[in-house]
Request: fold
Amino acid sequence: MIAPDSFKAFAPEETQRILHHLQQPAVFMNMTCGWPVLHWTAEHLSECLGDKLVRFRLGRKDETKTPLFETQCSYVEAKLEHFLNWTRDHAGRDVGPFCEYPISAYWAYADYKYIAMLFEDQPSMFEDVKWSEFGFEGRDGKESTLWIGTQGANTPCHLDSYGCNLVLQVHGRKRWHLFPPEDTVHLYPTRIPYEESSVFSQVDVLHPDPQRFPAFQGARAHVVTLQPGQVLYVPRHWWHYVESVDPITVSVNSWIELEVDHIARVSEAVTKAVVCALKSAPSDDNADNWLNPTEEGVGSHDENMQYLNLAVRSSAQQQRSLCHRKHTQNERDARPVKRDSRGEIRKHCDMRGESVPFRVPFGPHLIPVHCRQEDPPETRGLTTKDVRPSRDCEVKSLEDCTARSNALQRTELASAVNPSVTQCRQCESADTKSQNNSEDYEEPTDTTITTNGLLECLVHPDVIALVTGLLLERHTGSSRTSAPSSLCNSPSLSNM
Reply:
């Protein structure tokens, strides 16, 4: 009989296959049983780190209807013991530099802490995280980051240009608000503050300003509250806003590239060259704090151009490899093949010779994060906090989960095949709005174009995708259609 703490929902090889087929966020249940990292409470980590100083980001709890970017936060370096004393709000306890920030008005976040650097003198801590059980051989906590926050601590809504994320919730709960890549047009992307590989949203997704960002009402939020022991998979290019729900939360994040996207790297190199060139130029309106604290510094224009050329060459090499692979595949397809009783070519077969197309095994051990707008009335508002990771799990059957997923895929496919329906509705809405507002139109009082205003247009994901396609067409012979379409799904640039 298998011991409860050794039960794993999926074998490493099966998990890898699932990750390569997942197209939406999903929560893995019953995959971290027995991982020592689940004992990493803030108290335990305080004992391990002792007098080591950790940098915390602090933000006010005020609602301003604008994102609180990392460039606008306060920062302190303190021991975890100071942090714990501060959160407990006990008079007379040593809270170190937190003394200037009342806990009633501020939240604190030790974010993006590389475990390899935090525990460089305690390498045995790396082994407490076992990403190898997700099919990443040899991968442990050394390649991960640690996040410790108080209630209300948050990460501004953004998307990651490279790779995907596996997030293990260790202690407390975090709520994730996720938006698909197609919603980029509704999220008003910006590259100021600048951080390589991160595109931020100008919208406070919890308290949006409908006057400034009317298109946000078309965004489709997928919301899930992550529980201790659960692992969230965030696909590449999915927008996400993360907030801590409980008084203290601890999580471990592993950023992974299932397959290197060289075109995305060209796009980032173009963005970096443009942003750094304009923001490094002295001018009256260039005095803002535009570089995200996670960035190490600003490279020279020559360095940025060298980076761009390396990215273009890598993309060209990838294109040649793909062409060679396709040519080899065509030759292989020309060989004699096995056919079934009807004379049709057999696909991948199981041991019995039957076709076995892969289906993501949604069910009690893998929960899809659905869009709130698409949930049926009886389940709307439910998150994985309503699902127990034990054997008496309250989730619906595998058939129900699969049917629901297939229905969602059919809806998305219909929209993709016949986008004119959606566009017509958008046009009708825009026409009605134009008629209603034509009499109330007022000439803008300030028509001055600032450096940041210019950058919002120049490095908008749609524009960068077009420039990337042109560069690759000119220097590698690739078609412009090979530009990263996942970041340019809007029908126009009207919402820049």
User: Anything to note?
Assistant: The longest helix spans residues 301-333. The first strand starts at residue 26 and ends at 28.
